[in-house]
Amino acid sequence: MEGRRERKKAALRQHISDVATALFLERGFDKVSVSEVAEAADVARPTVFAHFPRKEDLFFDQYPETEAQLVSAVLDRPAGVSAVRAIADRALYLASQESPPFLVRPHQEPFFRIVAESRALQARAREMVDQLEDAIALAMEATGVRQPRLVAALTTAAYRTAHLESVRRVLAGRDALDHVFRVQTALGVVDQAVENNPVFVR
């Protein structure tokens, strides 16, 4: 069970993130400094960096949980379920729980617009995709997936492609109601290729 200290730490992290997000939405990511976030959140600047090592991480504050969820999907999957299918199933479940990283909706348009206008955020997003791929590859390797690096690369590429297509639709003023279907389809293609292709051998 999470202790009081951990709860207070998590609450402070969330508070800082909420304040930062409000400032970013109001003025844009590049026009807000970490010092301004600290002042608005009524904390010291080092406190901000203690929770978020980089300014970009204030914006992508949900990434650690996203990575943890997908890695645990691979590590804890039931016998007979492929790693890619486990990731698809976990993404579907979290989408049904309205978890923001696994849904793309019109009301998120301001968030996506900020990313589109900031090279720093775009660069950090690419780094996070690489980081996620590495984490998934390690989980796949630990659970006996054949060619784990290749499977992880295909999985993250498929997920990223589906996600970006939904984001583009929202930025163009269209809906993305089929986002979950798009993700499931993309991951299904990878899963079928991996499970049925003799290339994926040790």
From TrEMBL:
Keywords: DNA-binding, Transcription, Transcription regulation
SUPFAM superfamilies per UniProt: Homeodomain-like (SSF46689)
DNA-binding region: 33-52
Residue stretches making up the HTH tetR-type domain: 10-70
InterPro entries hit by this protein: Homeodomain-like_sf, HTH-type_TetR-like_transc_reg, HTH_TetR
Matches recorded under Pfam families: TetR_N
Protein's recorded name: TetR/AcrR family transcriptional regulator
Biological classification of the source: Bacteria, Bacillati, Actinomycetota, Actinomycetes, Propionibacteriales
